């Protein structure tokens, strides 16, 4: 039982870390695939990249509490949301000037999705065992 709790705490930490890395990669990607560096003054360029990063990460910011304190329902919904970011990252890979930002986003999204699925797996096994042990009506 102690080992199982330690694994859960470790998985919570990994899920949280990959979530924050994903947010960081969104902002890094906004600087990489955003407006061209010489197209405007530096202050405006930084502000526009931060605005682009904010709007891209807005749906992910809605589930920040799930990353801090995971619950089964919240992690399930977060995993569905991550699939949209995965598609966006793949599209970025094939867009002009978006290769590095797309690779960052795709990699961190896949890592976060894998940790979310691994976090949900023991709960799914327990639910199946409970359903199997209960007599059907």
Structural summary, described in words:
The protein has five helices and no strands. The protein is elongated, with a radius of gyration of 19 Å. It has helices spanning 2-33, 42-61, 64-68, 72-93, 99-133. It starts with a helix and ends with a helix. It has 137 residues and is an all-alpha fold.
What is the element layout, followed by pairings?
Layout (H helix, E strand, L loop, with lengths): L1 H32 L8 H20 L2 H5 L3 H22 L5 H35 L4
Percent of residues in helices: over 70%
Query: Using only CA atoms, what is the Rg?
Result: 19 Å
SS-based structural class? mainly alpha
State the end-to-end CA separation: 32 Å
The main β sheet shows up as: none
Mean pLDDT: 86
The proportion of strand residues reads: under 5%
Q: What string gives the helices and strands in order?
A: HHHHH
DSSP helical segment count: 5
Using DSSP, what is the number of strands? 0
Low-pLDDT residue spans: none
Can you give keywords for this protein?
single chain, 137 residues, mainly alpha, 5 helices, elongated
Provide a brief overview of the structure.
By secondary structure, the protein is mostly helical. Helix content is 83%, strand content 0%.
């Amino acid at each position: 039982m102690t080992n199982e709790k330690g694994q859960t705490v470790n998985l919570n930490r990994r899920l949280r870390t990959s979530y924050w890395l994903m947010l960081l990669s969104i902002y890094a990607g906004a600087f990489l695939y955003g407006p061209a560096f010489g197209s405007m003054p530096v202050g405006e360029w930084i502000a526009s990249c931060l605005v682009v990063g904010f709007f891209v990460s807005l749906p992910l910011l809605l589930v920040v509490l799930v990353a801090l304190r995971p619950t089964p329902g919240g992690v399930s919904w977060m995993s569905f949301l991550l699939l949209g970011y995965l598609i966006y990252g793949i599209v970025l890979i094939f867009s002009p000037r978006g290769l590095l930002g797309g690779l960052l986003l795709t990699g961190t999204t896949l890592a976060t999705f894998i940790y979310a699925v691994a976090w949900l797996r023991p709960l799914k096994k327990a639910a199946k065992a409970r359903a199997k042990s209960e007599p059907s009506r």
